Fold this protein.
Amino acid sequence: MQSSKIGVQIVSSGILSDDTLMLGESHLKKWQIPQGQTVRLKFGAFRGDVKVIPVQRYDGMRISQALASRLGLHAPCTLRMRYRRGARELVLGPLVGVLISRDYPHHPDRPFGAITGFCRELVDAAKLLGGAVYVLTPAMLGSSVSRLDAWVWADGWRRVKAPAPDVVNNRLTTRKLENKTSVQHFFREVKSRFGTQVFNEKFLDKSEVFNALRKQPALGRFLPESHSFTGFPMLQAMCSRYATVFLKPVRGSLGKGIIRIVRLPSGGYAAHHATTLGTKRQQFPTLQKLYASLSGRLRSGRYLIQQGLHLIESQGRPIDFRALVQKNGSGQWIVTSIVARIAGSQHFVSNIARGGTLSTVREAIAKSNLAAGRQDAPARLRSAALQIAAGVDAQIPAHFGELGIDLALDTNGRVWLLEVNSKPSKNDNTPLSATGIRPSVRVMLRYARYLAGL
């Protein structure tokens, strides 16, 4: 049976004891909840025995301030509810924890920096769809995982104590934070003790993704030739096969550190470096001299070497596409949004942080030099994004609920995979709805409901 959406009011503990809750009579009849008898209340990691008192001509739930405090609720809210008769368990939720990198308590208007708006959108979506959301950081994690320090919205952000959540959305922005002992301990404990679902639980690196997807032959057509870079012989081999190759940091983002190597018609090679101010170009008479110039940088980190592609362009500016792919309320992958990104005039990467601009897919394709397949190109991009998401799910042992998938079209209309990002930006440039809640935020909350069985 589907869950019910129910408004929850908080009343004085003098009116209602904390082992009792009041519930609209229609809900008791629908769910066949025994009146005046003890049932088990579940909310995230919280478990407690309560008696349910029916209220005529009332459609909501009332709980005492003392019980609300134990649940981490400090303002009226809307939750989903279901009753498991066999277990005599009344389940409320979903309780969603958003794990972010840091907070700024002295900035009440933006306590979570650039992600504050997203966190508030999730709170608003929970009010609309049913659920409760709180925010926490690695610095707030202590020895106890059953009761956590958390930020909740109650006419402003405030810190409270709350149970461990049903679902954790991992929004940590660095591997260093994600790999902290306290964070990994938190993930292990809430999963094993409370059945908490943690999604987007790890970063992906480029080599990991391409090596995993190669295991599925059907996905091979989307993969440019790519290898973990091992030294000059590999560079020489790739440059003999392709006029252009790319060297990409395995753990890079926003186009940082990408090097494009081009074989020149007049002989020699050029290296193009992506910088914030534009493309820095260096020319070398031989590949050996180019490698000698780069070898210090290449030894300082892991790189992927990749076949260069003849991407479609608009006025000489390369175009690629970012698909936001999410799991929906049935646990199935869907494409929530897909946008075209056109590189800045002085750049060969399309990231917005590098001067790129956004466009609709159809508008970008219409203005491009795509030779064939213009009409069905958007559908083929969407299909590729879904297949790649399913491939990541099947081949990489981690739980993902959303992925940012960067795709490209070459001038013959073939779809290529550029990158998969397990921490897609929350400024995903999808339009706001009339309620000010982006579709991507609604989908995320519906997926949390699915994970929590609500």
Q: What stands out?
A: Residues 225-307 form one domain.
